[in-house]
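User: Is it possible to get a 3D structure for a protein together with its bound compound? The compound here is adenosine-5'-triphosphate. I've pasted both below.
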Amino acid sequence: APHKKHPRQRKIAVLTSGGDSAGMNAAVRAVVREGIARGCQAYIIREGWEGLVRGNAVDPTPAASRRASTAPSPAIRPTWNSQLTGLPDLNLDAVEEPHAVNYWDPNDIAPLSDAPLSFGYGGLLRDGAGEGDADELAAALAGHIPAVPEEEEEGGRTLKGRYIVRVGWDDVRGWLGEGGTLIGSSRCPSFRTREGRLRAARNLITFGIDCLAVCGGDGSLTGADMLRAEWPSLIAELHGNNHIDDEQLEAYRYLNIVGLVGSIDNDMSMTDLTIGAVTALHRICEAVDSISSTASSHSRAFVIEVMGRHCGWLALMAGVATGADYIFIPERPPAGDDWESEMCDVLKQHRLVGKRKSIVIVAEGAIDKNLQPIKGDYVKQVLVDRLGLDTRVTTLGHTQRGGSPAAYDRILPTLQGVKAVEALLEATPETPSYMIGIAENRITKVPLLEAVAQTQAVADAIAAKDFPKAMGYRDSEFKDMLAAFHISSSLSSADIVPEDQRLRVGIIHVGAPAGGMNAATRQAVRYCHSRGHVPLGIYNGFDGLLEDNVSELSWLRVDNWTTRGGSELGTNRTLPSIDMGQIAAALQRHSIDALLLVGGFEAFNSVLMLEKARKDYPSLHIPMIHLPATLSNNVPLTDFSLGSDTSLNALVQACDAIKQSASASRNRVFIVETQGGMSGYIAVLGALAVGAVLVYTPEEGISLSRLQEDVEFLKERYGLDEKGKSEGRLVIKSEKSSSVYSTDLITKVLKEEGKDIFDSRSAALGHTLQGGTPSPQDRTRAARLALLSMQFLEKHATPNAQAYHPRKKQMPARTETAAMIAIRGSKIVYATMDEVMRHTDMKLRRGTDVWWSGVKHLVEVMGGRAGVIAQM
Ligand code: ATP
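Assistant: Yes, that's possible. Here is the predicted structure of the complex:
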């Protein structure tokens, strides 16, 4: 692409608005760092739209001069050029941004302007109370807003009431692990008025900001779209009033806006997940898991209210992940008129088979089919009156918002923040404003207006009682999950197939244990029960099969398995090649008509072998499917395997603790060693999630020159830290990244080279990475994939496949009946063994192509290494 010279350095501002959500800080950090990396100046706007409307009490002359002492020597100033970013340089004339500078004095956080937020309405509104009507507001605004006091002196270091603040690379240090939003958020009624937006526009121009990233819910993003749509008329008015001059009018003709969806409800259309939803789900599952044990002890029922006004995502996912008995969500109200009886029937049946606890999850916006709200207290009353259950209501409330972000809510906002900056810099007057989303596993860019409109359409459809339409807007995952929930929580005989179509389905775990294996098994067992098939648990892998360690799994037996880590069936690395003839005989002996294998690379290898051996053994002519489960995520073809999310979360927790310790001693580099076989997935994604400065993977290996560069980088980096304010830094190393440069060796090298600048230590996470309790995502993913796996087996199986009939001709099973269920981008596919093999490196036991291959570079950009090394 030809180098296009921009007339001035771009200035990117970021704000967070509406209800806070975990991961907003990660989004801000990514926008700031990627912005700086691409040669822009970065700004934060505090307190959401409110801060933009208010602007600063003083003229925005660069505060940078205040900290000139920390400016690095010219030698290590990175030039963020096209070579590095792949984008044309935008600031050929501009001063480069040094990458270790604080512009923002943290003392500046507390003493905001004394005036209450939300003019005329007091600070009350910060909690999201009603925002009053627009006319009233306009009147209040006209009277209350002072003119921007441009000439006011900058009084000393601490400026009161600076809402728009330039930030440097190090201002956003350590933000990945912080919950909520550090730059503040609010509800801003004045932004709903044209007067408010006019002031916002004026402030943007005063600061020279032409790119704005907004992280918030649908309301905040509607506001963003409004601002962009009105922009031409706003600047015309400002020009007319002589608030901006001709030059400014020309220079700020276009405003580029991008939306990032921060919302715990996951209520935005056109994106699978919003920033913060996964963390909220973590909090809910933790709560429900704890409640479950007390419920069981006292044989109680609990009604748990979770957030979600127009979206039942949290309630549904929590229902699937915790194995709840019943859920209520807005987009799919109970079908019948008498939902009370329906619910009681289900819970009663569960009690009759021996369950000691009952869990009902109610979304905040749950309704019946006549739009009457369904509330926790009423549900409780019904359970007490009709079933005589000792019932309690727990409203989880704000605990759902809080806390340290889950791994996913660090990775997603980082990837999205980077994409947001890209969208801003690529925007032209013709392009619409975009919202950054995610579809299955790809970061997407969709027209903001369309996403907001579609979100509104869901609410409208619900209001119009058109529930199928509301469901129609939900993605396929949502629909699969709903089906999985109903199947796993139902004891009804409605879907049972005639006797001659019933199957005996073997379920086996192969390889190392991984989070979600048990949840998958539970779903498969429940599926069998709902259809009248017989689920057979094969204990201790293929060894167990040889010893006839096979027995039927009852509905109740698997009840608590969603939350259990490890492998309840028992698992090991034995492959069927240990004795193929005996394996085939055992399958025949137990009359197994179909086989579900849950596990990692060994499970894949097993299916491969079994399929090959079909030519020799008729009993192997049964459908078999591999459901990938391994923390390494090294199974070819699939984007994710069960267990990898649990493992990432275990890594994040461990690294947060390690980083704290490393920071306490001010200048310590920790080399953290991870498992993962020959795949660097856990290391790379983990490094992105914890903000490691370096990552070593088996894919890339380690060389002497690379190690030398890294030492130089660390020296430069520690050299830039303010005296006495250095922090701990993390290096993540995959255990198999080099057989020569061991963790121990690297630690010693760093110690030796760091001298009195930095020190080093190491920690090996080992088996802790298998994680205790599986993460909610692994549990829900397990349920969905197990459901689809069972449907696959059912489709291809023949009942009584192993029975011997003298006249029966052996029907050879087609190759596509031995498959792997894989998540591929936006699709779930059933891949044949041939297809999987085409993507497999058998020697290195991993796929030949992975979706995350570009992420390693991103770790280096976000850690600042890419810039420094590019200079050398
Ligand atoms: P949450 O998911 O927590 O509800 P949200 O972004 O939807 O987040 P809202 O309170 O709806 O939260 O909106 C936040 C702010 O966005 C409002 O206080 C207001 O300043 C601005 N905003 C919302 N809707 C509009 C609109 N239609 N026009 C202009 N600004 C708006």
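DSSP finds 27 helices and 24 strands in the chain. The two ends are 25 Å apart (CA to CA).
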